[in-house]
Design brief:
The longest helix is centred in the C-terminal third of the chain and has 28 residues. The chain is globular and about 55 Å long. The chain contains eleven helices and eight strands. It has a single domain, classed as 3-Layer(aba) Sandwich (Rossmann fold), CATH 3.40.50.300.
Length: 269
C-alpha cells in the first residue's frame, strides 16, 4: 500500500513545489512508482514537470474534486510525465473556483482522500503539493495524507506562521484524520555562509528535534532555472548541489518510510 505525503506550509516561497518535483523524480529514479497531485491553482507543479496546460480527457484535479458522483476510475485523471514511473494529476486556474464550490459539497474535506484512496495500491508514494494558504484545498490534502512534509526556508521569518500550521495539523488530527503525522521538516534555501542561515537552522532543529531531515537543501541557481525548461532540476543538471541534495533527501525519505512501515507491521504483528 502506497504512503500519501502532503507537502505543506501556508507560507509561499519556501520550496514546496521544487521539493515535490525533485523528491518525486528522485524517488522515481530509485524505481518507485510515484504519483504527484497538484493542489495549487497556480499549477506550478504541473508546468514544472513539463505538462503545463495539459489534462487527461476526464479533466484536471478540479473536475475530480468537484464531480457530483464518486469517481469510478481515479487513475483516468493522471498523466504520465517524461520521467519513467512518475505520474501527475494536473491542476490549472479552474482550481481557484474549487475553494468556493467545495463549501457546498457533501464531504467537502474528504474529497481528495476519497479520490486517492483507491490509488494507493498502484503507487509506492503519492506526493501532494499544496497552495500557500490553509484553505479547503490544503485541508483536503491534509485529510488525505498519512503524514506531512514541512519545508522551511532558512530565513528570518521561517518559524513565524508555523504555530498556525501546527494548530491546523492538530485540528485535522482531532476532527478528520487522527493518524496524521509529521513525516519530517525540510530546511530549504540554506546558505551556510550567513550567520542568519546557521542560526535559523539551529532554531529549527531545536524546535522540531529529530523530525528535521539531516538533508538540507541549499540555495542553488539550478533549482530556480529548471522549471522554466519544464524539467526537474535532477534532469536539468544532475550534478548541481540542489539535485544532489534532493537525491539525498529521497534516500532519507525512503529510510524513514520503511522504518514507519516496519514499526506498524510489528505493532500489528
Amino acid at each position: 500500500m502506497g504512503r500519501i505525503l502532503t507537502i505543506a506550509n501556508q507560507k509561499g516561497g519556501v520550496g514546496k513545489t521544487t521539493t515535490a518535483i525533485n523528491l518525486a523524480t528522485a524517488l522515481a529514479l530509485a524505481d518507485r512508482k510515484i504519483l504527484l497531485v497538484d493542489m495549487d491553482p497556480q499549477g506550478n507543479l504541473t508546468s514544472g514537470v513539463g505538462l503545463k496546460g495539459q489534462s487527461a480527457p476526464t479533466g484536471t484535479i478540479y473536475q475530480a474534486l468537484t464531480a457530483p458522483e464518486p469517481i469510478a476510475d481515479p487513475l483516468s485523471f493522471a498523466l504520465e510525465t517524461r520521467v519513467n514511473g512518475l505520474w501527475l494529476i494536473p491542476a490549472d486556474r479552474n482550481l481557484t473556483g474549487a475553494e468556493v464550490e467545495l463549501v457546498t459539497l457533501p464531504n467537502r474535506e474528504r474529497r481528495l482522500r476519497d479520490l486517492l484512496e483507491p490509488l494507493r495500491e498502484g503507487f509506492d508514494v503519492i506526493l501532494i503539493d499544496t497552495p500557500p494558504s490553509l484553505g479547503l484545498l490544503t485541508l483536503n490534502a491534509l485529510v488525505a495524507a498519512d503524514a506531512v512534509l514541512i519545508p522551511l526556508n532558512c530565513e528570518y521569518f521561517a518559524l513565524e506562521g508555523l504555530a498556525d500550521l501546527v494548530a491546523t495539523l492538530r485540528r485535522v488530527r482531532g476532527a478528520l484524520n487522527p493518524s496524521l503525522d509529521i513525516a519530517g521538516v525540510l530546511m530549504t534555501m540554506y546558505d551556510e555562509r550567513t550567520n542568519l542561515g546557521q542560526q535559523v537552522a539551529r532554531d529549527i532543529r531545536g524546535f522540531f528535534k529529530d523530525r528535521v531531515y539531516a538533508t538540507v537543501i541549499p540555495r542553488n541557481i539550478r533549482l530556480g532555472e529548471a522549471p522554466s525548461h519544464g524539467l526537474p532540476a535532477i534532469l536539468y543538471d544532475v550534478k548541481s548541489r540542489g539535485s544532489e541534495a534532493y537525491l539525498a533527501l529521497a534516500r532519507e525519505v525512503l529510510a524513514r518510510e520503511s522504518a514507519v512501515l516496519s514499526s506498524t507491521e510489528s505493532s500489528h504483528g
